[in-house]
Predict the structure.
Amino acid sequence: MIAEIRLKDFKRFHSLTLRTANLTVLTGANCAGKTSVLHALLLARQIARNPGRKHVELNGVDTLELGGPGDVIHREARDDVASVEVAGAEGNRSRWAFGWTNGMDTQTLNAAVVQRPRGYSGALTGPAPQFCYLCAERLGPRDVLSASAANEAELDVGARGEFVAQVLASFDRTRVRPSRVENPHRKQVPSLLHQTEKWMGRIVRPTQIDAQRFPNTSVTRLRFKTPGLRAEWTRAPNAGFGVSYALPIVVAALRAKVGGLLLVENPEAHLHPAGQSRMGAFLAQVAADGVQILVETHSDHLLNGIRVAVADGNAALTPEQAVIHFFRAEDDGGPVLESMELRRTGQLTAWPAGFFDQAQVDLAVLASKRRRNP
């Protein structure tokens, strides 16, 4: 499990050290660098999986669209080199560097392994379901989805969730770990399909799922049905964006290996506030089971779901297993990052200005207007 991430001359960060835990929440202003942390890990993964690799691709791999070297390497970087360092919980460290030389292909960067522990086998090197990345721009409702040509043992839901129907059709009867069952106090079928339906029912709405892959084609399909004798199967476009955006997150998290790494951007997208809170509680429960999750979010409801899960103990996530990082967009010489931890009551150790306080700011303005214009 990753205990610390260090970025050097990567994008807007001249230097950044980030402590990580079972559940790491990245939040803050737009364009403040939250997603850059995930992008750095994705570039590092390209080298980690193939230490002899000489270049990393900035565009096209894992949905990355990073542009050219000038968009990735800090303007004040020495020798036009950026680096990513990852420290494991056992104290081992790995460091990868990305460089640029005038005249080289502007779609790639030179790659080098600067430091790698002997026998490194962290989650960054593993296939699905040991590693999974879900970007913010997931696929919306589709009548048909594609199928991956990957070996079934390494089948992934895809960075946009494009293979989620194939995963459900292939592994529908696979047993989910007991600690990830939606309600451990009730007798439930622990299969992947059944638990996906249960969690989707809690997060979005009561739902039955039909996932199909058509033989000898690269076509898959999802259909949904509200439980009930008179309910009929409906096409995915009629089920809404909330279902399509949440489904691959639930499937990936339920399948993730203990010790694996799950990166998720905006898991709250297209969900009702109650669903956002329940998504936070779900991710907390999976993180407590030994999956390391890094979440980039703008949702106070998602954060509150995590806080409640810690406070009531249902998710089994301890305060020490969670950390929240708040990124500021302004770089005026002050800190660009403030970190917070959770107490057992679900309270945060700090609440900096600009951190999920817009509701209070707006209500204060309304109260002021009301006093002036009774």
The chain is about 25% helix and 25% strand. Helices lie at 34-48, 69-72, 164-171, 192-203, 241-255, 273-288, 300-312, 358-372.
